[in-house]
C-alpha cells in the first residue's frame, strides 16, 4: 500500500464508521436483516495491503464498532477472521487479467460478477461468525441462519448501491 493512499483510506474509514453507527445501525428489516456496511472498508482495501496490516485494521475497525454497539468483541472477531481470509480468497478468485499494483476490488474496476464472487462469501463468513457468537450457541440455529442469510443479502446490496453512487472508475484511490 502506497503512503499516498493513507489519507484517503483514513477518510474512507471514518465515513464507513459514521455511516454504520448513525444510519445503518437503525436499518433493520423484519428484525432479521441487519446491514453491516462497515465490512466494505475491509473488503475494498487495495490488494497489496500486507496481511498483518489487514488483520490489524480489521481488529481496530471491529473494536470501534463494538464500542459503539456495546458488544463484547464479536465484531472484532468477525472482522479479524475476514481480514485473515481475504488474501487467500483473493488468490483463489483472481480476475481474468490478474491483479495490478494499486488495484482496489471495486465494481467499476473489477466488474459485478467478480465483485459478487469476491465479496459475498466474505460477507457471509463475517455474518456467520457475528450472529452465531452473538447467539452463544446452536440453540437458535434456524433463526440465526435466517439472520445470516438475510443480513448477507442486505449488506451486499447496500455495498453495491454505495459502489455505484460514490466510487470512481479509476484504478487508484
Terminal CA distance: 11 Å
Unreliable spans: none
The secondary-structure element order is HEEHHHHHH
Q: Which radius of gyration do the C-alpha atoms yield?
A: 15 Å
Report the structural category: mainly alpha
SS field, number of helical segments: 7
Taken as a percent bin, the fraction of beta residues is under 5%
Helicity level: 55-70%
Widest sheet: strand ordering: 1-2
* Average pLDDT figure: 88
Largest sheet: 2 strands, antiparallel
How would the global form be characterised? globular
Number of domains: 1
In total, the number of strands is 2
Summed up, what is this model?
This protein has helices at residues 6-22, 39-43, 51-69, 74-92, 107-110, 112-135, 141-166; strands at 28-29, 33-34. With 173 residues, it is mostly helical.
Characterization of this structure:
By secondary structure, the protein is mostly helical. It has one domain. Helices cover 66% and strands 2% of the residues. The protein has seven helices and two strands. It has helices at 6-22, 39-43, 51-69, 74-92, 107-110, 112-135, 141-166; strands at residues 28-29, 33-34. It has a two-stranded antiparallel sheet with strand order 1-2. Strand 1 (28-29) and strand 2 (33-34) form a beta hairpin. The longest helix is centred in the last third of the chain and has 26 residues, at 141-166. It is globular. The termini are close together. The mean pLDDT is 88.
Amino acid at each position: 500500500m502506497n503512503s499516498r493512499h493513507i489519507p484517503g483510506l483514513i477518510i474512507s474509514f471514518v465515513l464507513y464508521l459514521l455511516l454504520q453507527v448513525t444510519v445503518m445501525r437503525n436499518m433493520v428489516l423484519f428484525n432479521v436483516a441487519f446491514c453491516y456496511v462497515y465490512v466494505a472498508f475491509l473488503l475494498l482495501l487495495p490488494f497489496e495491503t500486507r496481511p498483518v496490516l489487514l488483520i490489524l485494521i480489521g481488529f481496530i475497525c471491529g473494536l470501534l464498532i463494538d464500542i459503539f454497539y456495546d458488544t463484547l468483541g464479536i465484531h472484532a472477531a468477525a472482522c479479524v477472521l475476514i481480514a485473515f481470509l481475504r488474501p487467500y480468497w483473493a488468490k483463489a478468485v483472481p480476475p481474468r487479467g490478474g491483479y495490478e499494483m494499486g488495484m482496489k476490488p471495486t465494481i467499476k474496476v473489477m466488474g459485478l460478477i467478480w465483485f459478487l464472487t469476491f465479496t459475498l462469501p466474505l460477507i457471509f463468513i463475517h455474518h456467520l461468525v457475528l450472529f452465531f457468537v452473538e447467539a452463544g450457541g446452536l440453540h437458535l440455529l434456524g433463526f440465526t441462519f435466517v439472520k445470516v442469510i438475510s443480513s448477507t443479502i442486505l449488506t451486499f446490496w447496500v455495498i453495491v448501491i454505495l459502489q455505484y453512487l460514490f466510487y470512481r472508475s479509476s484504478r487508484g484511490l
